[in-house]
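MFS transporter: structure, please.
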Amino acid sequence: MSKEKMSPEQKKGLHTVILGYFMVQFALVPVAAMLPSVSRDLGLTMTESGWIMAIYLLSLTGLLLISGRIGDQFGDKKVFTTGTVIFLVASIACGFAASYMQLFLFRALQGIGTALMSGNALSIISKLFPEGGLRARAFGKVTSAAAFGSLIGICISTIFLQFFSWRLIFWITIPMAILVLCLVYTIKEKKVEATSAKIDLRGALLIYVIIVSTVFYVSAIPDFGSCSPTAGGMQALTCQPLFPFVVPLFLIGLTLLLIKVERQAEQPILILHEFKNQLFVSSLGANFILHLAMINVTFFVPFLVEDGLGMAPVYAGIVLISVEFMNAIFPRIGGAIYDRTGSNAIRPIGMGIILSGFIIYWFVLGSTSLIPYILVGAWIGAGMGIFWSVNNNVIMNSIKGNYQGFASGMLETTRQMGHTFASAISAVAMTLGVMSSDVSLQIHGHGSGGGGNLDASTIFDGSKNIIMVSILLALIGFRLAFYQERKASVLTEEAPAQQQ
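Here you go.
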């Protein structure tokens, strides 16, 4: 049983990362809610509004792994600090944006800053807290901060949009960023050994193109076979008959080229031999499934409550808050239990709770009362919180040596990719539920409080599809959660010194 207490240095470092994690999550969620106000003020089209959100996510997701490896080479504290400065400058600039192009560029810059911070945050924690001891508890607090950031961001943005201006939502993070910069200088970073090796620019470029292309392709999946060949812009490309087949071949070719480049690189971005580490790979897969499940819930609940049950949007918000609140509370509990017991059963229990929650959702679907959906949502949120913090700890523990930035970057990349895949999978699953109906699914305009275009039976069919997919994925995640640290220890110790 761990009875250790945090040192002052550990507390300062943990508080720095917690505030940084809270800040970026706080800033992420409100942007979707403010888009209608931004569009009215700047005269944006629906497509332009979508790109204000998309460019941030593309910058963030595409650079997470790269930023983690740069942290390994030059120091995670330096990269984290640089990211905070970029985020601060971009947030100020976003609030002053006077045109679509200005806001587009500043949001891209904000995404870069977030990637530099997020890609190195858990690496900093890993170095401050030795394996065992208080590490899992520290990860639990960081994870809770992310969930609370999303939760509070939703509440604050609603107030600001109602009574003030969308510009203030960008500026509210300014004092947070300044405080992070003040705190980060209190962290004592071990001196990184000087290296003459250059940054692996070829590998970085290939990784960015592969990730961004994958995100773009997955986001376009709901349009396959349903969009008009006469459509313009990006949709004109995704509507081409060969698009669904050509892009995967293109991605396979780039991946093979990336492997060749990384084997030759002196300081590769992608540490290939770590993919022989079963614990590392299985835990990343479980992380991907966890965040995919999170977004699946976020996607179908508004449709279910508003169009299926005919209730006002506020009631959908109550269900989602029940999920987020428990997801914010339980990471600290799961981390504390893991620190005290070191039990390998915690991850399977967490994923098992998620799995059982989706199974219960299947059976209560059709209930006209909101109570079952709130209770099951809270149950799933608790499972997510328990699994999330402990799985993060396992991922970071599974990588030895000077590759903590790589582990942190991979963890965050699989998290964001899970969100991306979930949006596409949920849209397709819901669309299949309306195929037998004469109505069309309007992703960006549902929620009519009972006055929408989708009848209840159609919504229930679509929700069942999403729940079934979530059950199957949670089953895979449940199996992956049983991989334990002892299975990977030998591989990690015997990993070759060179990056093959």
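Notes: The chain is about 75% helix and 0% strand.
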